[in-house]
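Quick one: structure for this chain?
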Amino acid sequence: MNQPDAAVIILCWNGKTFLENFLPSVVEHTPLSLARIIIADNGSSDNSEEIVKKFAGVEWLPLNKNFGFAEGYNQAIKKTNAKWIVLLNQDVEVSEGWLNTLLNFADLHPDLGACQPKILSLNRRTHFEYAGAAGGFIDKYGYPFCRGRIFDSIEEDNGQYNNPIEIAWASGACMMVSRQAYLQASGLDPDFFAHMEEIDLCWRLKSSGSQIWYVPDSIVYHLGGGSLPQGNPLKVYLNFRNGLLMLYKNLPKSKRFRILFIRLLIDHIAAYRSLFTGHLKDFKAIANAHFHFLFKSGEWKKKQLQPANQPDYTKFPGFYNGSIVWKYFIRKKKKFDELDSHHK
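Got it. Here's what it folds into:
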């Protein structure tokens, strides 16, 4: 029997409750003739395997310890031979035809490296979800945002973003990626552990000539905060540290110092804003992120950086040649369509 061209990999860590609630929709709407369904377990201790055994055809892939999001997927994808791999969070509910739509889109776009569906909120289904919404963008200082979500402002889905569009990054909550392109780009960077590693991967994919797309006819619903809830100090730390690491790795040498210097200044403003508004844990998390990036992470210097002949990343679709911090907090632009035209 021929293996299907796709594999849906759900990375699980103590996700028994999530599997009980969300795996049924994946099984219902993902025919095994279309894709293998694999639960890659990051060393869970909550008997998650017992839930998986209830679903015929769903595969259990133990990884024996918690590798984190990035290396966990690297381990699983190396052991999975399929043309297309779907990275699917354990707290995502899928809808009918979700995967067929992504695969059909891939057939029509030979340069596709990765894509994502429309990601709506599970708890507020009329609205986009924080993690990926209607496709990921990034500003010149490395701050990510989405069509449908800028910082904490989340839009209602009224069909305003129902057109497919090439984007800067696809959300790790639900990303379909070419296994070949993934491996050629060395996969997700395990130094990130979790958060923003998919943005770093997509930047590298685009630098190598692959396209990243948003496919609105495929729809999933994301609970969000399944591993680390919004506002968790560790999540704040990882987002700020990993944002700096992503810039360090992907910026050309001619722009690296200037952009990182400005990014650090903006981060400092965010840190003191947290302090003055009573969020001491967030202030400490940002301070630790800067300290570890600047003084305790000599390994960063050994990373493969962008060579001088790489294409100009500011011309990539999805890269916003401006400051989203300025637009949002100073100019009060809360919706994607309120940004100026040079974001497209």
